[in-house]
């Protein structure tokens, strides 16, 4: 975990104060100074990654930001707006889609 510890991750998942967000965030709120973890909004990590990339460009840092999202978020408007910002403002970012392809079958 980039910048975190296993103890911090387990503590967060168990709701203990030793967790990365003091046990208050759970699995959707694991953050460190160099890892901006998950959140509850579908596709929200893509604009977050674009914002981090913009900050790095603004500061003159020679880095690349990676933002990953699942195929369920591929039709979200904020994902397309983040694409536009990265292209128009020339950020250094890699936005990667992961094909989850999970299709539950309900039998009634």
User: How many domains would you count in the coordinates?
Assistant: 2
User: With helices defined by DSSP (H or I, 4 residues minimum), what is the helix count?
Assistant: 3
Strand content: 5-15%
How are the strands ordered across the major sheet? 1-2
Helix content: 25-40%
Instruction: Specify the biggest β-sheet.
Output: 2 strands, antiparallel
Shape summary: flat
β-strand number: 4
Instruction: Specify Rg, calculated over alpha carbons.
Output: 16 Å
Structural class: alpha+beta
Q: How far apart are the termini?
A: 42 Å
Mean pLDDT: 80
Query: H/E order of the elements?
Result: HEEHEHE
Give a topology summary:
Layout: H1 6-13, E1 31-32, E2 35-36, H2 45-59, E3 65-70, H3 77-88, E4 93-98
Parallel strand pairs: 3-4
Antiparallel strand pairs: 1-2
Helix pairs in contact: 2-3
Concise description?
The chain is α+β, with helices and mostly antiparallel strands and 108 residues long.
What report would you give on this structure?
- Strands 1-2 form a two-stranded antiparallel sheet. Strands 3-4 form a two-stranded parallel ribbon.
- It folds into 2 domains: about 1-40, no CATH class; about 40-108, no CATH class.
- The protein is flat.
- It is about 30% helix and about 15% strand.
- It has about 110 residues and is α+β, with helices and mostly antiparallel strands.
- Helix 2 (about 45-60) runs parallel beside helix 3.
Task: Please describe the structure with a list of short key phrases separated by commas or semicolons.
4 strands; alpha+beta; two-stranded antiparallel sheet; 2 domains; 108 residues; flat
């Amino acid at each position: 975990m980039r910048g975190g510890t296993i103890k911090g991750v387990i503590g967060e998942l168990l709701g203990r104060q030793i967790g990365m967000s003091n046990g208050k965030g759970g699995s959707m709120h694991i953050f460190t100074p160099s890892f901006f973890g998950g959140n509850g909004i579908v596709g929200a990590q893509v604009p977050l990654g674009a914002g981090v990339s913009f900050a790095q460009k603004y500061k003159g840092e020679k880095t690349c930001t990676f933002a990953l999202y699942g195929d369920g978020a591929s039709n979200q408007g904020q994902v397309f707006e983040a694409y536009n910002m990265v292209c128009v403002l020339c950020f250094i970012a890699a936005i990667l889609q992961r094909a989850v392809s999970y299709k539950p079958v309900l039998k009634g």
